[in-house]
Amino acid sequence: MFSNRISNVPKSFIREILKVSADPSIISFAGGLPNGDLFPIENIKAATNKVFDIVGPSLLQYSNSEGYKGLREMIAKRYKSFYSLDIPADNILITNGSQQGLDLLGKIFLNEGDSVVMEEPGYLGAIQALGVYKADFLPVPVSADGMDVEKLKSVLAGNNPKLIYTVPNFQNPSGITYTNENRKEVADTLRGSGVYMIEDNPYAELRFSGTNKKSFMEFLPDHTILLGTVSKTIVPSFRLGWIVAPDEVMEKLLVAKQAADLHTNYFCQRIVDQFLSDYSLDDHIETIKALYLSKKNTMISAIKKNFPENVSFTDPEGGMFLWVTLPEGISSMKLFDKAIEKNVAFVPGDPFYTNKTDVNSFRLNYTNSDEETINTGIKRLAECIKEML
Ligand SMILES: Cc1ncc(COP(=O)(O)O)c(C=O)c1O
Description:
Low-confidence stretches: none
Shape: globular
Number of strands: 14
Bound molecules: pyridoxal-5'-phosphate
CATH superfamily of the largest domain: Type I PLP-dependent aspartate aminotransferase-like (Major domain)
CATH architecture of the largest domain: 3-Layer(aba) Sandwich
Order of helices and strands: HEHHEHEHEEHEHEHEEHHHEEHEEEH
CATH class of the largest domain: Alpha Beta
Number of domains: 2
């Protein structure tokens, strides 16, 4: 009955885990949820009332497929202030979250079996979205400084990928950030190959320390596609994201967007536009960063105090996740089963890999638990790890 397209694409492991961890007695470091205590509820309410007054009935009417021009101009302005990038509003397509951006890119670029270079470990939502189009993934490892350029070169030498997918800032899942030098080397390696770089960037503005890094758009302006979202800086429920793409790609994306859903929720676009006009996003982001930094520090201290010495972990300069690596041969999936018995959840590494199982690494989210819960959860996790060692 069902299409080849959907067969063998696994369910999102995270959604499954979120079901398990919805049980309030479970301490969950599994989700990737922004902290709801910081949602700007009063300001969103005020912005909503105001757009009703300003826009009138057309607020509830169909709209254009590209997205609301005022919002696209606002996003272009932000690229200018944050990255000094000149992005024309016409090259921005508003999407239903950046997740839809991934789906649309899969739809316009991929025939069955086309290859895609994928960070390893990589965002499982991208693996799933592009997996639906039967992408043949070519994994290239990332570590503290960014992508393994030698491996990228060898992958490019033997294959003909159409796309490369990266989350270069506070990567989901590992929390690592590519250095500027690494970005340049990756871009130099790609230049002239015709491969489009997808820079998925939901976390860059959530930087606690260090300096902002350059966008791939600076190095490969003709072949970079940016994905953005308000999910981590304003609210995720509006499902509001965007794609920045060159003209020839935008043309195809627009057709795919029309075919998929005509346009993104106009009401929410106008609310976000009003919110951004009336309030300081920078101030709001400062509040988010202060809270996330203190939670991250709590988790790092708890890990240092409780985890055995032969367990390593990343200490991200921003974002929402850190990545733990167990000694060789210890399965994070088996650790997960043990941890659930002690009422602690995390995401085992497996779903972030395209061709490996029983990996020895896993992802922890630190943005959603209070400090006491973080301490208790990490202590319990440490007990499970020690039992496995
Ligand atoms: C790297 C990455 N890309 C895309 C998404 C999806 O975000 P959105 O809510 O904009 O669809 C997420 C969400 O966690 C993410 O971490």
